[in-house]
Amino acid sequence: xxxxxxxxxxxxxxxxxxxxxxxxxxxxxxxxxxxxxxxxxxxxxxxxxxxxxxxxxxxxxxxxxxxxxxxxxxxxxxxxxxxxxxxxxxxxxxxxxxxxxxxxxxxxxxxxxxxxxxxxxxxxxxxxxxxxxxxxxxxxxxxxxxxxxxxxxxxxxxxxxxxxxxxxxxxxxxxxxxxxxxxxxxxxxxxxxxxxxxxxxxxxxxxxxxxxxxxxxxxxxxxxxxxxxxxxxxxxxxxxxxxxxxxxxxxxxxxxxxxxxxxxxxxxxxxxxxxxxxxxxxxxxxxxxxxxxxxxxxxxxxxxxxxxxxxxxxxxxxxxxxxxxxxxxxxxxxxxxxxxxxxxxxxxxxxxxxxxxxxxxxxxxxx
Amino acid sequence: xxxxxxxxxxxxxxxxxxxxxxxxxxxxxxxxxxxxxxxxxxxxxxxxxxxxxxxxxxxxxxxxxxxxxxxxxxxxxxxxxxxxxxxxxxxxxxxxxxxxxxxxxxxxxxxxxxxxxxxxxxxxxxxxxxxxxxxxxxxxxxxxxxxxxx
Lengths: 367, 150
Hints:
By secondary structure, chain A is of the alpha+beta class. Helix content of chain A is 47%, strand content 13%. Chain B is an alpha/beta fold.
């Protein structure tokens, strides 16, 4: 006797405990095996690009906080760098160091969130996520000292940062940098060689380097597929050319490689912060300019290596106090281009793991 | 350090391979004719000493008389970039050929441009709205879209 089977389409999300953020995906299964997926976006679409056309250049910094809400600092940086490029605004040296320190702290915080949720999606409920969030909390405390806010920081301005760090920031940062490698060791000790984690992630959701480049993937997704490309090295900005660091890459492009690249990047970030602490000199942190930034008419594109990949802004100015057009190149959104190739042929439980390893942030996908 | 290629040089190379395709250049930007876009894209990707295998982003700007599409391209191997622009006239049914056949990375980005700016891409395998729902009236990033009207 043969059993009649037929494909079945089910809906995952937008509210689902295994998809962090309001991500919805329609999945077609043959039995338990995924044969087709169709992501449905837009549940967090706020029209950021349109809103930006009605605000002044300085006000838009607050909108960028809310793109990828787990990495506001790098969002700020990508935006203000584009405005500075467009308006040829100089940045004092101390401000550049402050920005790099803030960005690398943010990278650690963001990768901790990614790793925590990735493990959550593997079925390790809450415990490891809380370990990750405990450390992230310390980064947020540092941000609170820097600018008074923990998540929506709005710390950077065209021409520098909003204020210098208070006295007690530096000893707190030292303690953090000293403690953090031990915490990463602890975290890795629990998961990196764990048999269940390996069985669930090794060789699952393989992204080939060719497909990664063809589908414009960036960040840990691209580097997990053994493509050595990091904007901090390749298009060195701020003071990244004055610090020594490695660009970790994966070997086979599977879910495990994307996870391990993030862990290794956190170690590199700690080293970068330490070098910045050693090099930073007293000085101004912001170039004084007119209240309204008015870049000359023209266009500019500039990007930074955000925790999730290349975050770029393309701004067109007509010489006024707000941009004529402000386009956001969002890494999370573009990293989802190859999602279908990653998940087809795997089971439902693997889909959740693969999606977790790609690590998108819906605030940035939907904008 | 990523270096921007000279627009004039790139335009000359494009016009050698596809006469008349590149119409203007300025700094690192090259304007190409919309009809020639897929051919120029394939040429830029496949010529070994240009090697623009990575499509960084596609942006669309509404200049009222025309829409301008901006393609930021990158060669990771040579660490160079170039910006290709094309103009698309008409507000009723503007369209340009799709480059999905050359770069998969264009797939979601072209859908986003159609959704928010209302420029269609001919030859795209799935030209549907992406961030907004199918019945949404108008394309919000156009300059004549009034927020108060909706």
